[in-house]
Write a structure and sequence with these properties.
The chain has 697 residues and is an alpha+beta fold. Helix content is 42%, strand content 25%. It is found in: Membrane.
Length: 697
């Protein structure tokens, strides 16, 4: 074998065992001149994939024999370009299934071969399998894509947490819903590139949403007018949402318009909006408003945008609820102050921390004679109450100053209807009726005191004049009544020796009886005057209650012919005695009053029971009762029968008195250290019980 032949053999051997498929084409007619085994194997697989088994021998043929028209034009263009320019061509990687149907990837190139004259006579086409490289590149691209996706998710999560933390921090640092809403809207818009972000507050009275804060992109500055006022029914585009609990998400508004779930004429559709999110803001069971956002891209129900708005919703709902409650409290406080400012009674609130006045209404300023603006932060100790305390009221009793009542309240004492004295800066004095009480916080700590007082100087003066009138009138009436009663008794004595007609006898008896009744009435009115002027005194001495009650009954039995009086003893014998330190005249007055009432309100022939009870297990007290079978007392009148000047409304005016008898009875018994009560059934009668203390030495 010659050297040339040996070189040719070695070159052929090298081409057969290389990992690259190689073929030589004629540069002029594009015929395949020669190819190594790998190239021929590649084309067999290629034809098998195309279902063209008939192309088994391709040497001596051009590619035009098996390619489609489009493929021919493309390949001819490539071949001619390489021949004309002499520039190698590298094609794109392509896939080809192997015998098992698994994809393999190949790379091909076309290189010119020039002769000694620089002319391209041949073209070398190479194909090499790059499956491992392509798969590695695909895996790298997938890893890069996964990494990018993870990075995007992390960035979205970071943005979500940053927005929520920004909103939460603004809620902690500020109370203004306008400022909080501004922070939230700006943070959402900047981190998620929202087309628009809006925060609405709920108006339950009109069942509508009112815009609190919004932020729009430049192209959306012309926001629809409906954004400022949205009825609940139009909260979700194209449907009636009412007051939803869950977030409302429209992933793609444009697609929703195509399928018909949203009107195509809706402003969001016309504006090109894609994503829409609306998160209702609920605080417990109260609907506070909505947080909504629109996007130029599609959103997803589990996406970061939805989760961000949902995370912010809790903080915003709490902030709106807090602002709503503060507004309600402030409104109620203002309303309460307006009411207090209009009251005719003076009202002051003092603080225990510094002893100053924190609130005063105009009436208080008028009563105290101090300008309203000066009363604020007015220290109580500046009022010289030590000297004022020596002042006395119109009845001679000492009256404490008004600020002394407040100081007692600041010490925890509650005072009701106490007369106090006010000395104005001008020197004039007023008597006020004051009540004060301490104020406590929810934790039970005393924070201050409130005093309510009204000027009763005119009433006290009028009452004093009334008492003086009663005293003068009683004394002036007593003399003529005494004269009338004396002449009546003289006439009755003279009539005993003469025969007078019945009318004259009745007239004399009536004059004597009515003059005695008028004398008792005058005495009772004097007693009331003495009580009001603190001049009512008791002349106590030890007396036997058994003998006293028995004597009163005997006196009434002589003068009372139309009723039956019965004396009943319980726990006692008629010979026993019960000693009590009493004013005999006043106790007789009490018994006479009760028995006279029983006679007045009982029918003719009725039974009146007067009893005295003593129980060994209660040796310190004795009980006297007067029981009748009269008209009884209505339940509505029971709480008032011992009040001064009270008269039953449903009684005949000819039967009812002046309403002072039972009042005096209660006062007399109370000053003896006893008490009185009544049991009554309307239409069946009444029983009055008087309990008096006994001497137990």
């Amino acid at each position: 074998m010659s050297i040339n032949a040996q070189d040719y053999h070695l070159a052929e051997l090298m081409l057969e065992h290389t990992s690259v498929g190689m073929a030589i084409y004629d540069a002029h007619d594009m015929r395949l001149l020669q190819a190594n085994t790998l190239f021929l194997s590649f084309f067999r697989n290629y034809f098998a994939a195309l279902g063209q088994e008939e192309h088994k021998n391709i040497i001596g043929h051009t590619f035009c024999d098996w390619l489609t028209s489009a493929q021919k034009r493309e390949m001819m263009g490539i071949f001619h370009t390489v021949v004309e320019t002499g520039t190698p061509y590298h094609g794109n990687d392509f896939s080809l299934p192997d015998a098992h149907g698994e994809p393999t990837y190949w790379h091909w190139s076309l290189n010119p071969v020039r002769d000694e004259h620089g002319q391209t006579g041949f073209l070398v086409l190479t194909v090499s399998e790059v499956t491992e490289q392509v798969l590695a590149r695909q895996q790298a691209e997938q890893a890069q894509s996964a990494l990018s996706q993870t990075k995007s998710l992390l960035e979205a999560e970071r943005d979500r947490l940053e927005v929520i933390e920004t909103v939460a921090r603004s809620v902690r640092e500020a109370l203004s819903p306008e400022r909080i809403s501004g922070v939230a809207v700006d943070a959402i818009a900047e981190h998620f590139h929202a087309e628009s972000v809006c925060l609405h507050i709920a108006d339950p009275n009109h069942r509508a949403l009112r815009l609190l804060r919004s932020r729009m992109q430049t192209r959306r500055q012309e926001a629809p007018g409906t954004i400022h006022y949205i009825p609940y029914e139009h909260m979700l585009p194209g449907s009636n949402a009412g007051e939803p609990r869950d977030p409302i998400v429209v992933e793609d508004i444009q697609n929703a318009a195509i399928v018909g779930t949203i009107r195509k004429e809706h402003p969001l559709v016309l504006g090109g909006t894609r994503g829409f999110i609306c998160v209702p803001l609920w605080f417990r069971d109260h609907f506070e408003g909505t947080l909504s956002a629109t996007f130029t891209t599609v959103v997803h129900k589990q996406g970061p945008e939805v989760r961000t708005l949902t995370g912010c919703a809790t903080h915003l709902a709490a902030a709106l609820a807090h602002a709503r409650l503060l507004t309600a409290v402030e409104s109620e406080r203002t309303r309460l102050r307006d009411i207090l400012d209009q009251l005719p009674e003076g009202i002051l609130i003092a603080e225990i921390s510094n002893g100053t006045i924190s609130y005063a209404n105009p009436a208080a300023a008028g009563i105290l004679g101090i300008p309203l603006e000066e009363l604020s932060a007015f220290p109580l100790h500046r009022y010289s109450w030590s000297q004022i305390y020596r002042e006395t009221a119109l009845d001679g009793q000492p009256i404490p100053p008004w600020n002394f009542i407040v100081i007692r309240a600041l010490c925890g004492e509650t005072i009701r209807s106490k007369e106090t004295l006010v000395v104005k800066p001008c020197g004039s004095k007023l008597v006020t009726l004051a009540s004060s009480a301490p104020l406590y916080s929810e934790s039970g700590i005393m924070t201050g005191a409130v005093i309510v007082f009204q000027d009763v100087t005119a009433q006290k003066s009028l009452e004093q004049h009334k008492n003086e009138f009663f005293s003068i009138a009683n004394h002036e009436l007593r003399t003529p009544i005494t004269i009338i009663q004396g002449f009546a008794e003289i006439l009755q004595l003279a009539a005993q020796n003469r025969q007078l007609d019945s009318l004259t006898q009745y007239a004399l008896a009536s004059i004597s009886e009515q003059s005695q009744q008028l004398t008792r009435l005058i005495e009772e009115m004097l007693d009331i005057s003495r009580l009001e002027q603190a001049q009512f005194t008791l002349k106590r001495a030890e007396h036997d209650l058994v003998s006293l009650v028995k004597h009163v009954i005997e006196s009434h039995s002589i003068t009372t012919r139309q009723h039956h009086l019965h004396f009943v003893l319980e726990g006692l014998q008629s010979a026993d005695s019960l000693i009590s330190n009493i004013d005999e005249k006043r106790i007789v007055q009490v018994l006479n009053n009760l028995i006279n009432n029983a006679i007045k309100y009982s029918p003719t022939g009725g039974r009146i029971e007067v009893g005295l009870r003593y129980k060994p297990d209660k040796p310190d007290t004795a009980t006297i009762w007067v029981k009748d079978e009269g008209i009884g007392i209505a339940p509505a009148e029971m709480p008032h029968i011992f009040k001064r000047f009270h008269r039953a409304r449903d009684l005949d005016r000819s039967m009812s008195g002046f309403g002072i008898g039972l009042y005096l009875v209660k006062e007399v018994i109370g000053r003896h250290g006893g008490h009185i009560r009544v049991d009554s059934i309307e239409g069946q009668g009444s029983t009055f019980y008087v309990t008096l203390p006994l001497n137990t030495q």
